[in-house]
Specification:
alpha/beta; seven-stranded mixed sheet
Length: about 325
């Protein structure tokens, strides 16, 4: 079930049972969720976990995606993440007893066909049928690995691909898409996010959990409920990272996001979007325009041009999968 939860929603829109056996380990993406440019009629700025991660990773990358809105060609890794997310979302359309590896495998081909119909350039990612078949096999292995992490026959998610948003006291709007939201009969909430990369090292876990705390903050500000559990499921190596937040955690996350937004506003006001080279640059689509690689960024839009830009559409699951897939190539870093 897809849905939406915003500040106008006083409670979670729908509650489904989490079976008692899984409740204790219980509750991610996507869409080009952007810290977006304001519309001329309504100067509302918003920030998503993906765009926040962009700025933390490299302010110039944030500029290319949000200010310049440069197109990015799809990659095999991005497409695989999108396909795996789509199959796991559709799996829960099946009756509980039918949610097995065979049913999931049967969804791969039709979901891929649906994605290609919506984005025909995806079909051009593969040099030949053999490469495509090997790629599908990799996606299938990740989906099979999901079944080693939990039993979907014992779960009834409240929401899948849930759009959430909330406005902070500063006027900044937070938004994003949660892969899966589980709610127990007792009202306990678990946020679940699927990752097609491998789990980060222990010293990178805090950064990996930032996205989940972001979602937890939005849910808390919209429903008054602090999620009981945040759960990252790494399908690349079959590990789960769990974290139980409290109000102090979420208040600290809110302060961090506000400070991050002030940094973005300073960069925007000064026109100072500096590159921050790292090993993630190897997968950046914009190296040719980056000064760190001898490139020259395009001229910045004028203030008047920025004011006339339409606010981008709400972010979608494909953006979340794109960020997940690209960053997960670095096994020490994931969002």
């Amino acid at each position: 079930m897809t849905g939406e939860l915003s500040a106008a929603s006083p409670t979670l829109p729908r509650v489904e049972e989490i079976r008692p056996e899984t409740a204790a380990s219980t509750a991610t993406a996507e869409l080009p969720e952007a810290a977006e440019l304001p519309a001329a009629a309504e100067k509302v700025w918003s920030l998503s976990p993906s765009r926040a991660a962009d700025f933390l990773t490299c302010p110039l990358l944030y500029r290319f995606r949000v200010v310049d809105r440069l197109p990015e060609a799809p990659s095999q890794a991005m497409a695989r993440g999108t396909l795996v997310h789509a199959v796991l979302e559709r799996l829960f359309d099946e009756p509980a007893a039918g949610r097995n590896p065979q049913a999931a495998a049967a969804l791969i081909a039709p979901e891929w066909d649906r994605l290609v119909a919506a984005e025909p350039e995806l079909a051009e990612l593969f040099a030949d049928p053999a490469e495509h078949a090997a790629w599908l096999e990799q996606a299938g292995a990740m989906i099979d690995r999901y079944f080693t992490l939990e039993d979907p026959t014992r779960l009834e998610p409240a929401h899948r691909e849930l759009h959430v948003q909330a406005e902070l006291a500063s006027g900044l709007r937070l938004r994003g898409y949660i892969d899966r939201l589980d709610v127990s009969a007792q009202g306990d909430v678990r946020i679940v996010d699927y990752k097609t990369g491998t789990a980060p090292r222990a010293d990178f876990e805090a950064r990996a959990l930032f996205q989940m705390r972001f979602y937890a903050l939005v849910l808390w500000r919209t429903s008054g409920t602090v999620p009981r559990l945040l759960q990252l499921m790494y399908l690349g190596n079959g590990e789960i990272v769990r974290y139980a937040p409290d109000e102090a955690d979420l208040l600290a996350t809110e302060r961090k996001i506000e400070a991050l937004w002030r940094a973005i506003e300073r960069a925007r006001a000064a026109g100072d979007w500096r590159p921050r080279p790292s090993k993630l640059c190897d997968w950046c689509a914009h190296q040719a325009l980056c000064p760190s690689f001898g490139g020259t960024p395009p001229p910045l839009p004028s203030a008047d041009e920025l004011s006339r830009l339409d606010m981008p559409a709400a972010a979608g699951p494909e953006d979340s999968a794109r960020a997940d897939s690209a960053l997960a190539m670095d096994k020490d870093y994931a969002i």
